[in-house]
Amino acid sequence: MDGVVDHLADERNKAQFDVEEMKIVWAGSRHVFELSDRIARLVASDPVFRKDNRATLSRKDLFKNTLRKAAHAWKRIIELRLSEEEASKLRFYVDEAAFTDLHWGMFVPAIKGQATEEQQQKWLPLAYKMQIIGCYAQTELGHGSNVQGLETTATFDPQTDEFDIHSPTLTSSKWWPGGLGKVSTHAVVYARLITDGQEHGVHGFIVQLRSLDDHLPLPGITIGDIGMKFGNGAYNTMDNGVTRNGKCVRSNVPRQLIYGTMVFVRQTIVSDASCALSRAVCIATRYSAVRRQFGSQNGGVETQVIDYKTQQNRLFPLLAAAYAFRFVGEWLKWLYTDVTQRLQANDFSTLPEAHACTAGLKSLTTTFTADAIEECRKLCGGHGYLCSSGLPELFAVYVPACTYEGDNVVLLLQVARFLMKTVSQLGSEKKPVGTTAYMGRVEHLMQCRCSVQKAEDWLNPNTILEAFEARTARMSVAVAQKLAQFANPEEGFLELSPNLVEASVAHCQLIVVSKFIEKLQQDIPGKGVKELLGMLCNIYALNILHKHLGDFLSTGSITPKQGSLANDQLRSLYSQVRPNAIALVDAFNYTDHYLGSVLGRYDGNVYPKLYEEAWKDPLNDSVVPDGYHEYIRPLLKNQLRNARL
Ligand SMILES: CCCCCCCC/C=C\CCCCCCCCCCCCCCCC(=O)SCCNC(=O)CCNC(=O)[C@H](O)C(C)(C)COP(=O)(O)OP(=O)(O)OC[C@H]1O[C@@H](n2cnc3c(N)ncnc32)[C@H](O)[C@@H]1OP(=O)(O)O
Ligand SMILES: Cc1cc2nc3c(=O)[nH]c(=O)nc-3n(C[C@H](O)[C@H](O)[C@H](O)COP(=O)(O)OP(=O)(O)OC[C@H]3O[C@@H](n4cnc5c(N)ncnc54)[C@H](O)[C@@H]3O)c2cc1C
């Protein structure tokens, strides 16, 4: 900030906590903070990684630009000998969806998680050096959610010792796989395995798609891009492919790990949610402190919009959620690492819980984040609608996360199955553990009474936890009892699916709240850091309580009076967080390059920069627009003639 006026300096001076220590908490460790900071600056200072022109490039230019960035990123990774951790941060700060995401994020993990030792030895070295580029070809035109409904077949031919991969119908074309359309040379293709005329369910097969010499599709394979997607720029940096195959390959896949890649990616999507959310919140918070409307007295300055309680009521729960998702993401990473180690030792006991947690939290965090980005756009008033605010593109890139890697409702139904199984086993020898351990106290939770008598009682973490546990247990038991009345359980499941989804949401919200509370039990250094995190935790929980008051009241988990007291406490928490708001978003340590937003600039110098940005639009290249002579001038002349008549 040398030589630059900091329009947010007063705001920064108000902070009541050590922002440098908060940066470490947000990053996860001092090591990660320093590494992220270094790589963020490296990316921001490299002109090839410029991204402020994305909204105005044509699809072809946009795509070619992305190829250029990916090649440059790879060159820098090699030149600088970046570690895997550093390379992955570099990808994060380059901030552009590309085929490389699917290569590193799905193709490589699919081989690591599902291929035999021999297959790994063959394919991984090639993939690690990017001598082949891979994608993850599961979804078809006709089926995405219903993986068992995939139509592509892989028929083993004992004569040639090969698998014949075949898409017999239009609907069996692979449709959507990122990178497939124009770049990938290889794919993990999911297909129904057939041997000796017998079906063995869906398995993954490594298929070569294109020649490594001239990039042409191999014989029998038709490939292309599926067309423009939502939003200018945004996800259109990515080629999403369609393909039909009739190609032969060798493969041999272990049976039980078919879904493993999806568990891995869902876990990374939860961590990403806190990044996208914090980015939108950073923009909206800084701008809310800069923007002033109404309230001027005797010609004095107007009120900063962040001081309006309605703005705080919309913004601060999103800020709190960004921190909440950060911590639940950390925990989920731990859970994933743990389940992976167990699977390697052939222990499958915790896989159902890992599946339920990754599916449920992926659904909860992405739905919330997509809605929150749109809310942040509205929080920025009209200027939020400008591409230079960064918010329209962020929304367009982020919103498909609600669909890819499992539609969010379909995933909540998976959680519901897990919850119903847990409830049905209560009273048996199998005790609920992990995230469902609270169900072990179901008798207490079905009849306990919330003890809150005054607003401050809601600051007790045990009180909050018990209210959330009682709500979830009661909702789950109620729907389980309804299910039991159906002669056919699958019919009951379909009929009651809206209630089941609501119980799953409650369960996932409980997980997020409980992991935030667990985080606060750790040793967290730095003046005021733990106190501020405690406030955010309470805001996160009490806001959910307010938004889902119907659940809490209808299950008798709290009384109407207690609901009202929770709301009083929320308002008081907003006042306490307000002076710290700018410092809390500074703790994300985002560079202006990464934020990509005039409204969210670190220095708060919004208006001159908005004006400057507007002049850069290609429409302003000429004073008189193209088309004037063909379409405007004749119109005006006609009007003139008509007026004279
Ligand atoms: C330009 C810049 C470049 C820079 C470059 C620099 C270089 C970079 C270097 C490093 C960078 C690193 C970058 C990494 C980036 C990573 C980012 C990753 C980005 C990813 C983007 C995402 C793209 C999206 C991809 C996709 O969408 S892939 C397709 C996903 N599809 C789905 O998710 C389908 C959803 N459907 C299902 O999951 C299921 O089939 C279903 C819903 C579960 C169906 O269920 P069904 O009823 O049919 O049940 P069954 O199938 O019979 O299930 C039976 C039992 O199995 C259990 N089950 C189900 N699923 C799972 C599971 N996943 N895991 C475990 N168990 C599971 C189920 O519970 C049943 O159990 P039971 O006990 O009840 O029998
Ligand atoms: C940007 C993007 C990138 C993608 N990348 C890849 C990729 O790299 N590789 C790949 O293989 N795939 C990819 N996909 C595909 C993606 O995984 C699927 O679109 C996703 O799994 C949803 O499946 P679907 O499209 O079949 O939705 P559908 O299942 O057809 O969903 C349509 C509607 O039906 C509802 N529905 C479906 N089933 C049920 C049910 N049982 N009960 C109640 N409601 C139900 C859903 O909630 C939804 O509202 C990508 C998708 C997008 C948008």
From TrEMBL:
Q: Which residues belong to any copy of the Acyl-CoA oxidase C-alpha1 domain?
A: 259-420
One Pfam family matching this protein: ACOX
| Keywords, ordered alphabetically | FAD, Fatty acid metabolism, Flavoprotein, Lipid metabolism, Oxidoreductase, Peroxisome
Domain spans labelled Acyl-coenzyme A oxidase N-terminal: 18-133
Is the Flavoprotein keyword given for this protein?
yes
Where it sits in the cell: the answer is: Peroxisome
Protein name, entry field: Acyl-coenzyme A oxidase
What species is this protein from? Tripterygium wilfordii (Thunder God vine)
* Biological-process GO terms, alphabetical: fatty acid beta-oxidation using acyl-CoA oxidase; lipid homeostasis; long-chain fatty acid metabolic process
One of the record's GO molecular function terms: fatty acid binding
> Where is it predominantly found?
other
Q: Where is the Acyl-CoA oxidase C-terminal domain?
A: 460-637
Read off the InterPro entries from this record.
Answer: ACOX_C_alpha1, Acyl-CoA_ox_N, Acyl-CoA_Oxase/DH_mid-dom_sf, Acyl-CoA_oxidase, Acyl-CoA_oxidase_C, AcylCo_DH-like_C, AcylCoA_DH/ox_N_sf, AcylCoA_DH/oxidase_NM_dom_sf
PANTHER family reported for this sequence: ELECTRON TRANSPORT OXIDOREDUCTASE (PTHR10909), PEROXISOMAL ACYL-COENZYME A OXIDASE 1 (PTHR10909:SF250)
Q: Which residues form the active site?
A: 405
Q: Which family does it belong to?
A: Belongs to the acyl-CoA oxidase family.
